[in-house]
Amino acid sequence: MNITYQMTNVRLPKEKHRRLKLLAINKGTSIGHLLEEAVDTILEGKDRRLNIAYQDDPIWNLPKIAFKSKDPLLSQKVDEIVYGVIKK
Length: 88
Known about the structure:
Elements: H1 14-27, H2 31-43, E1 46-47, E2 52-53, H3 62-68, H4 78-83
Antiparallel strand pairs: 1-2
């Protein structure tokens, strides 16, 4: 497969750049490759930290919940209603 690349610039805080560079060195790859992997993860709709697919997030049920709900405080209780977590 022939892939055409587009150049882009990314601004990072110095500390994040330093850590990213060290990670690239330890993995034997480039910062660009690490960033490309991160973008692929985002575009695939998966969050590795939570190990869930975004499309499976209960937040997508909110329109259905809101339509059926008669709760006047619904907008203030989104986390509790959708995730079962009380927002503090």
